[in-house]
Specification:
Layout (H helix, E strand, L loop, with lengths): L1 H93 L1 E16 L5 E17 L2 E9 L9 E2 L9 E10 L5 E7 L21 E8 L3 E11 L7 E14 L3 E12 L19 E4 L2 E7 L3 E14 L2 E12 L7 E10 L7 E10 L20 E13 L2 E12 L7 E14 L1
Antiparallel strand pairs: 1-2, 1-19, 2-3, 2-4, 3-5, 5-6, 6-7, 7-8, 8-9, 9-10, 10-13, 11-12, 13-14, 14-15, 15-16, 16-17, 17-18, 18-19
Length: about 425
Amino acid sequence: MKKLTVLLGLSILLFSTSVLAQVSEAEIQALRDQIEMLNQRLDQLEAQNRQLTEDAEKSHQSAVAQVEETVNEKIDTAVTEQVDERMAAVSWAERIRWKGDFRYRYENIDEEGKDGRNRSRIRARTNLEADLSPTLQVGVGLATGGDDPVSSNQTIGGGGSSKDIKIDLAYFEWTGLDNTSITGGKFKNYLIRPGGKGLRWDGDWRPEGLGAIWDNDRFYVQGLGTWLEGDSRNGTEFAWALQGGVKFKTGADGTLSIGVGYTEFDVAGRTPLFGDQDDFYGNSFVEDPNDPENLVFAYDYRNYEVFLDWKMKLGGHPFALFGNYTVNDEAPENDTGYLFGAKFGSAKDRGQWDVTYFYQKLEADATVGLLSDSDFGGGGTDAKGHVLSGTYAFHKSWNFKATYFINEIKLASGDPRDYDRLMLDLNYKFK
């Protein structure tokens, strides 16, 4: 019985295991399929999640990049504007130049027939230059002094009274053509003055009109037209000048410049250009045939001239010879003027010095007296004599100069007078 029971139990167990085995395989396969589907779904979800994450990251990065780009653009714009403003300010400053000079002078004048004279004088000049373009410059200058067209000197004294300031320069200069400059307004006189001397033109004279220069470093031509009177209500008066010449190399250190010139100042029959009714500065005058109470110029001044300036080295030092000759074709007599001289050394920097000597004779109607050297013979024409000067430089912008004139004046009168003059100058310049 017991054996039967065991056999029956074993049979049931074997049957149950077989059935269980069959059910589990089906269910397991189903579970496997479901798991596979779940895995696939998970993969899809992960892929979608990765895509969403990537899209979100890209969107975030794009937004950040846009913000950064906007911020950078604003920063760049602000920086650029500031830089442009500062550069514009720097550029404008670079295109403006301010320069000038100051001179303190003591002088003693000993003229025969008059009491001796001692006086102290100052001259201050300043000039502002602005480059409006690479080829266009405008300048404005101020100077001490009054209306005198050939002097910016101001005698000091008067209890410390204020001194006059005048417009010394007001001009434009255009250099848009090769080797050429065109100037207009009230400008520095660039007509050649051999040795820097004023046989015909004082250094302070400022033409008022138009001028042009052509210079290729070998040949040069220059001219100007200046208004002696520019208002038609007062009777317009126009004068002009033309010069031309050539420059040569002479040896290793020498340069010779020679030239010719012609000028026309038609003033015959006209009252004085400046000053009192009898101020002709040595030129001949007559009574006005239409108004005997007035005095007028006797002649026009149509001048031919020749000039030279020869610079070289002598004993290792700068040395120069210079000369100028002019004749007025309209005057029947007393129509000639000339000078010749030499300069040794060059007082351009500290410890340097120079000495200059020249002789000059300027007959009464050799040139327009108003515009000639205002120091020689007291100014004007009808004088002759010697001039000796020396300069010592304490600094490239500061020097001392002494000049002594030994002259005779009033030559045409037949009774000339001695005229001696000593000038001691302290000169300063800045820029």
